[in-house]
Amino acid sequence: MSKEFVVAVCGATGAVGQEMLSVLEQRDFPYSKLVPMASARSAGKKVDCKGEEYTVIEMTEDAFEGVDIALFSAGGSTSEKFAPCAVKSGCVVVDNSSAWRMNDECPLVVPEVNPHDLDWHKGIIANPNCSTIQMMVALKPLHDEARIKRVVVSTYQAVSGTGQKAIEELENQVRRLMSGQPVVADVYPYQIAFNCLPHIDVFMDNGYTKEEMKMVNETVKIMGDPTIKVTATCVRVPVFYGHSESLNIETEEKLTAADVRTILAKAPGIIVEDYPEKKAYPMAINAAGEDATFVGRIREDETIENGINMWIVSDNIRKGAALNTIQIAETLIERDLVRVP
Ligand code: 25A
Ligand code: L14
């Protein structure tokens, strides 16, 4: 990669923004200049990348002049307001929020799955929901081989997805409970320490949560196949980093457990960790800080003809957010698509 770009990280002081700075450094992303932005209350804070210190500036409508690529993770309303301003300044936006994902003008991309969708971007590219991303990485190779008809997914989602305040809430509740003090719930509606909440994002009229419906709708858009049926139950668990998911998959063609292991062992972005005899299976504490999606507990579902059960785990802040965003930016560069058409 010879050309270098001016890159803005928008929401640089948040949990995902901080991880974006580490991923840019770890992958030696080719920027000529880095511009960290956040809200007015964080302007003036210092952040680090590639051994240099930067002062965070306030995100404003004209802050994007001269920026080539903006990586957004500052919440949906911020993206709705500022992404169009950035595009008007000639900047390509990769956005982490749910604001643009189902917009027909915006590709929704997992680079291992549908990099070709970047070809029709008009300035804003959406990064999928964290739970959807890891599921897509694991399902696409199986869909290509045997056509997936239906997926039943249950998630076990870490608090870091909600941001820095939620990480602190779990820490504080554990500390208080251990010293016999009453807990305070502020970010989540109930105590999350030593508990599970079947409630992520808001409830919708159909009784599902918005997080569950993101998994249903985003899957169809990313796979480009309206026939795949997904039904989801999303649960918050007292884990700091790493989302776990139990998947039950029904395919058109028969896949044995051995077939699934062989296919996934060759697939990009996946590590198969499935050795029951050694008690080896994916766990959030091992996936935290890693780039891969880990797959294990691969079994045939003996109640239907063509069914597979498996357990997948990935770092929600890395592959689920910061890493996938930066992989999208890298793919834009490779395909010479860093321009607003
Ligand atoms: O919490 P907010 O308001 O949504 O802000 C998140 C980031 O966006 C910036 C904000 O600036 C922060 O960088 N931001 C918000 N409004 C903005 C605006 N109008 C804006 N930028 C520009 N214009 P901030 O730094 O002023 O806000 C404070 C943020 O700092 C973090 N923080 C809080 N207490 C902290 C702390 N950091 C360190 N130590 C502490 N004690 C915290 O960021 C706080 O919000 P965060 O981690 O909570 O941000 C997570 C946001 O990103 C979304 N998100 C998370 N995962 C995903 C995701 N969105 C999409 N996909 C994901 N996978 C969360 O929903 C949350 O909005
Ligand atoms: O990407 O875990 O739509 O609270 C919104 C809720 C990310 C995670 C999204 C959470 C998310 C999030």
Explain this structure to me?
With 341 residues, the chain is an alpha/beta fold. The protein has two domains: 5-128 and 321-334, 3-Layer(aba) Sandwich (Rossmann fold), CATH 3.40.50; 132-315, Dihydrodipicolinate Reductase, domain 2 (2-Layer Sandwich), CATH 3.30.360.10. Helices cover 30% and strands 24% of the residues. It contains eight helices and 14 strands. The strands form three sheets. It has a six-stranded parallel β-sheet, sandwiched between helices. β6, α2 and β7 form a beta-alpha-beta unit. α3 crosses α5 (210-223). The two termini are 22 Å apart. 5'-O-monophosphoryladenylyl(2'->5')adenylyl(2'->5')adenosine is lined by residues 11-17, 38-39, 41-42, 59, 73-75, 78, 96-97, 130, 161, 163-165, 320-321. 5'-O-monophosphoryladenylyl(2'->5')adenylyl(2'->5')adenosine binds at residues 11-17, 38-39, 41-42, 59, 73-75, 78, 96-97, 130, 161, 163-165, 320-321.
